[in-house]
Amino acid sequence: MSHTFTFNGVSSVDLKLVVQKLPARPIPTQRITAYTVPGRSGTLHTTDSSYDSIVLSVECVVTDKALIPSICRVFQGSGFLSHSGLPSGHFYKATVLNASDMTRICSKWSVFQVQFECQPFLYYPTYTLTHDNHSSGFESHIGTAFARPKIVVYGNGNLSFSISRQEVSGSTTTVTYTVNNVSSSVTIDAETFTVYKGSTNKLPDFSSTDGDFPLLSPYLNVFPFLPQSTTKIEVTPSWRFL
User: E strand or H helix at 71, and its extent?
Assistant: First the structure.
């Protein structure tokens, strides 16, 4: 079976590239800070549960040099990266690292590498869940890491909703999120730490009982009944894997 990969919707097949080697799937490194405490033996380690980016390299062969301009045009900037070695539909959020060298490399040698700096998580295909104020809802996690969803909240005035998530220990944490002075709807993007309505920044109107943005558990998440002022929420989970 031949290897293939796709970046921003353009396949290596479309560019007549032969993929010689796909990257192994690395485990991202968790950021850990080490402290030496006077009078305490050993080293104390702490983490904020964040991870470093990973670099993936794809080795290709150019079979049609007339397509070099197209190859160089495709492999630049940021976008979604998937390849045949990943589960179907899964993708990385990636940025091309060696775009400035691409023309020279392709023109001089038929074999070249595209290097991608990827966010540490592998993402599951996006879909949206809807919960209204007539019923509670729940969702099991599909990935293996806590996820940062995008949530659109509908209603007028001061809107709120809650998420009860199961922690690693098995205990449950319930957090309430509130956005004040809403007209029709507002979007909370927990991955980019933004709250907005169109081009209007609503971050000053946002608050939560834990001081953080929405988080979904790798185990179980329950969305309790919404208050009357909040008519519904649309949750795009952005499930992710380590």
Answer: helix 68-74
